[in-house]
Amino acid sequence: MAVFFAVALLAVTCPSMAFDMGQSTRCVTIPNRMKVCKDVGYSEMRLPNFPGSQQPGTLRWCPVQRTGGLCCRPGCHPQAQTFLCSLIAPVCLDTFIRTCGSLCVAVRDSCAPVHACQGHPWPAALDCDRFPAEEDMCLSPHAKSNYFTKGIPKVACQNCPSVEEAPAVKTVLDSFCQHDFAVTAKLHRRRSPAGEPEYEIDGRVEFIRQGPLLPYDTQHLLQQWLLINLGCANGLVRPGRSQLCVLTGSVQHDGTLALTRVFPWNKKDASIAAATRKWKHHRC
């Protein structure tokens, strides 16, 4: 499972500090404090970087909840880490390799909704029109996956689902009937190196009612839901623990997936076990 970081770079919010090719440059080792770029595939970065800093030690990182600036969760797009590190820790080569506008657009379109849901808009300093066109020598996005995606639900920011402890059997069965799908999934919470909580699906997702969901995509959808709806996820799982849950929800008219009810499934909850058994023969 991918590791997600929540980081913010203070200086990047100033558009006037973009990289100037006329400045003298030098190469330095990527500092340990730049944890998000320590495993990016190279060990030295060129200064000045995008914020124009000549001292890598002056780059200040802090949790996204406590400051604005460039928000980056490398789980929101496969190349989010590449995009971020190409700006703040550009690879040290004879030629300065910039970021393509197309990569900026790809990361922005995927990651901006994640951070907007948490109250952090895409920073004006990262206007994708400022980056070079695809025909120039620059970092471009990977080719899009060619697997069939038509009809797959999308994940969006939503109101938090209701969490119901120790429900009656009828309550669980009614929820199965009222919604498009019902699944069991183990949600795990841990802290990232940046100190922020991260959530992941621990193990397989099991279907109770499949509805419009696809077996190969459902775990990824739920992982994306936890990433985008971080505030909701905070209320579902205690730190350092995994919580088995029954999740019910529907696909909206606009194609977005919405979780509606969450039933934490603990050992003492015999009613949930009874409901899942009865569902095979239940008529709504």
UniProtKB/TrEMBL annotation:
<protein>
    <recommendedName>
        <fullName>Sizzled</fullName>
    </recommendedName>
</protein>
<keyword id="KW-1015">Disulfide bond</keyword>
<keyword id="KW-0879">Wnt signaling pathway</keyword>
<dbReference type="InterPro" id="IPR015526">
    <property type="entry name" value="Frizzled/SFRP"/>
</dbReference>
<dbReference type="InterPro" id="IPR008993">
    <property type="entry name" value="TIMP-like_OB-fold"/>
</dbReference>
<feature type="signal peptide">
    <location>
        <begin position="1"/>
        <end position="18"/>
    </location>
</feature>
<dbReference type="GO" id="GO:0035567">
    <property type="term" value="P:non-canonical Wnt signaling pathway"/>
</dbReference>
<dbReference type="Pfam" id="PF01392">
    <property type="entry name" value="Fz"/>
</dbReference>
<dbReference type="GO" id="GO:0030154">
    <property type="term" value="P:cell differentiation"/>
</dbReference>
<comment type="similarity">
    <text>Belongs to the secreted frizzled-related protein (sFRP) family.</text>
</comment>
<feature type="disulfide bond">
    <location>
        <begin position="104"/>
        <end position="128"/>
    </location>
</feature>
<feature type="domain" description="FZ">
    <location>
        <begin position="22"/>
        <end position="141"/>
    </location>
</feature>
<dbReference type="InterPro" id="IPR036790">
    <property type="entry name" value="Frizzled_dom_sf"/>
</dbReference>
<dbReference type="GO" id="GO:0060070">
    <property type="term" value="P:canonical Wnt signaling pathway"/>
</dbReference>
<dbReference type="GO" id="GO:0005615">
    <property type="term" value="C:extracellular space"/>
</dbReference>
<keyword id="KW-0221">Differentiation</keyword>
<dbReference type="InterPro" id="IPR020067">
    <property type="entry name" value="Frizzled_dom"/>
</dbReference>
<keyword id="KW-0732">Signal</keyword>
<feature type="domain" description="NTR">
    <location>
        <begin position="160"/>
        <end position="284"/>
    </location>
</feature>
<dbReference type="InterPro" id="IPR001134">
    <property type="entry name" value="Netrin_domain"/>
</dbReference>
<dbReference type="GO" id="GO:0017147">
    <property type="term" value="F:Wnt-protein binding"/>
</dbReference>
<keyword id="KW-0217">Developmental protein</keyword>
